[in-house]
Amino acid sequence: MPAPRSVRLIAPSGYCHNQAAAQRAVQRLQAAGHVVENLSAITRRYQRFAGDDAQRLADINQLVTLPTLPDIVLAVRGGYGISRLLEQVDYAGLRQRLLHQPLALCGHSDFTALQLALLAQSGLTTFSSPMLAGNFGAEALSEFTVSHFWQALTSPTVNLSWRSQSPDRGRWQGTLWGGNLAMIASLVGTPWLPSITDGILVIEDVNEHPFRIERMLIQLQQSGILARQRALITGSFTSTALSEYDNGFDFASVWQRVRDTCQIPVISDLAFGHDADTVTLASGARATLQIENGEAQLAYTGHPTLR
User: Fold this and answer.
1) Is 274 a known active-site residue?
2) Among 131, 143, 251, 296, which has the minimal tally of Cβ within 10 Å of its Cβ?
3) Which residues make Cβ contacts (< 8 Å) with residue 248, sequence separation at least 6?
4) Of 129, 274, 283, 303, catalytic
5) Any idea where the LD-carboxypeptidase N-terminal domain is (predicted)?
């Protein structure tokens, strides 16, 4: 059982349409002894968003001036909306307040845009992690997801292992980064995408057909981003269906094209993304990746660790 923590909710993206799930998550966290703050973020609504732009931006920038910092800052849900805020985020203030603090800034999906912007502009390492409603509020709580979450936030070195269908073998070291592929691609050519050389790039997505995933990866390739990476790790790509028209064109075909055109290894099958079971990764951490005979291992360190 993890030690009781203070958890501050933020909702910089879409309105939380599953209010029951969010309330279930809050009750679970409180029952475990955690203090949950800023509950009004759950019910806020403006159009399709969790409040207007000013309210959602305040969730982020208020971290600069809070009298006491929480242990965990947790996104309520993803959706869409952070891209509208990136130009107004107080990157200098967040760097001054949060750098070298044991604070875990957590979320995934649309939240990827903020995480990458913070890494690019403030040098802050954050966590690609489960979120309040979709994960902690799921009807059947995933023990896999919860245990990996607390392991990542409390362990100075995090070790993950999984079976991969990748034909690659070897050992690589670099900066761990990435998240939702659609959000990564949306930041190409902007100041909000960090320029990572010798990186270990991890990607995932939902509701995207293999051809759309390949198109986004071609954008990263033609922008010179993939060529600068040591390796690519693929997580879960869910809620899509192939048809007869695809004629064998699947995700494995996409990964092989990356190997062939970019000459980098692609290590597949990490439980990371929008599935119920997902690991937690630290975007900006130092990582070592290795694979031999389909046994993949990833270790990372240098991330904020809760005391």
Assistant:
1) yes
2) 143
3) none
4) 274
5) 7-128
- Out of 37, 204, 208, 214, the active site residue is 204
Fold of 157-301: Glucose Oxidase; domain 1 (3.50.30)
Q: Tokens representing 47?
A: 């159009």
- Beta strand 170-180 with 199-206 is parallel
> To which residue do tokens 């390739």 refer?
221
Q: Which residue has the tokens 């990490």?
A: 270
> Does residue 1 carry a pLDDT above 80?
no
User: Among 13, 34, 109, 283, which one carries the catalytic annotation?
Assistant: 109
Token representation of residue 81: 């909306």
Q: What rounded mean pLDDT belongs to the chain?
A: 97
Position 307 scores a pLDDT of 87
Instruction: Tell me the CATH number of domain 6-154, given options 3.30.70.141, 2.40.50.140, 3.40.190.290, 3.40.50.10740.
Output: 3.40.50.10740
**pTM to 2 decimals?**
0.97
